[in-house]
Amino acid sequence: MGDLSIETFTFASSSGKLVSIPNIVFGCGHDNSGTFTNATSGIIGLGGGNASFVNQMHHEIKGKFSYCLIPLELLLDSSNATSHINFGDNAVVSGPDVVSTPIYKKESPIFYYLNLKGISIGNKTVEFKSSPISLPGYDRGNIIIDSGTTLTYLPDVFYLNLELLLMHSINATRKDGTYGGLDLCYESNENGTIDVPKIVAHFTNADLELSTTNIFTQMEEGIVCLTIVPGGNQISILGNLAQANFLIGFDLKANKMSFKPTDCTKY
């Protein structure tokens, strides 16, 4: 149910001139479901499918794009901060503090898979496990990175091991019950956060240090909850809360992704 159309899309450019790209296919659905509200103007397709926005512009952007997502709390406090996206040569992420990891393509060309080897809390590491016995091929892409999914979903076994380590590492008062569907919740300090030892996600060739706000978010006044959840054993997803305040660059020709810690409000 909907309309499919073709239009010329025009962008501001780092060259100072406008860039127009003809014959971009886009659509408007008339029967939309899920978590979308009238406050959402639409979805931009950044995936690997033939009709995705980045593949339709492949000739102009040569497989390169990057985005910088502001943290959730800034979206909610009506500040003027906005997230940004770049296409083409201006999207290359560089500098001394950049880490890069391979992108893997699997059954569905739409998704970008990364390889997560484990997560460290302080000096202890939990290894990625998709089931009690590791499935073959898990080290060739085991987690999707998705800007359109809010939470981070991990396999149940891996999640339970990580949750156990977190509970032993966090010195804060645990709250019973569920808040907005999230189960691991604590009383926050006056800054609205909790003290957690250093958290590092270990990807192939890239150690990504996450801030507390990448994995905990304030659900109510004085209560923060873990935004990593068990997702069964079907699919693992690195969601957008975990990606906030990183400049994240995709190079689909070189099949690699780069992360640079960035204050996205100043980017």
UniProtKB/TrEMBL annotation:
<dbReference type="InterPro" id="IPR051708">
    <property type="entry name" value="Plant_Aspart_Prot_A1"/>
</dbReference>
<dbReference type="InterPro" id="IPR021109">
    <property type="entry name" value="Peptidase_aspartic_dom_sf"/>
</dbReference>
<dbReference type="InterPro" id="IPR032799">
    <property type="entry name" value="TAXi_C"/>
</dbReference>
<dbReference type="InterPro" id="IPR032861">
    <property type="entry name" value="TAXi_N"/>
</dbReference>
<dbReference type="Pfam" id="PF14541">
    <property type="entry name" value="TAXi_C"/>
</dbReference>
<dbReference type="GO" id="GO:0006508">
    <property type="term" value="P:proteolysis"/>
</dbReference>
<keyword id="KW-0325">Glycoprotein</keyword>
<dbReference type="GO" id="GO:0005576">
    <property type="term" value="C:extracellular region"/>
</dbReference>
<protein>
    <recommendedName>
        <fullName>Peptidase A1 domain-containing protein</fullName>
    </recommendedName>
</protein>
<dbReference type="InterPro" id="IPR001969">
    <property type="entry name" value="Aspartic_peptidase_AS"/>
</dbReference>
<dbReference type="InterPro" id="IPR034161">
    <property type="entry name" value="Pepsin-like_plant"/>
</dbReference>
<dbReference type="GO" id="GO:0004190">
    <property type="term" value="F:aspartic-type endopeptidase activity"/>
</dbReference>
<comment type="similarity">
    <text>Belongs to the peptidase A1 family.</text>
</comment>
<keyword id="KW-0064">Aspartyl protease</keyword>
<dbReference type="Pfam" id="PF14543">
    <property type="entry name" value="TAXi_N"/>
</dbReference>
<dbReference type="InterPro" id="IPR033121">
    <property type="entry name" value="PEPTIDASE_A1"/>
</dbReference>
<keyword id="KW-0378">Hydrolase</keyword>
<keyword id="KW-0645">Protease</keyword>
<feature type="domain" description="Peptidase A1">
    <location>
        <begin position="1"/>
        <end position="260"/>
    </location>
</feature>
<keyword id="KW-0964">Secreted</keyword>
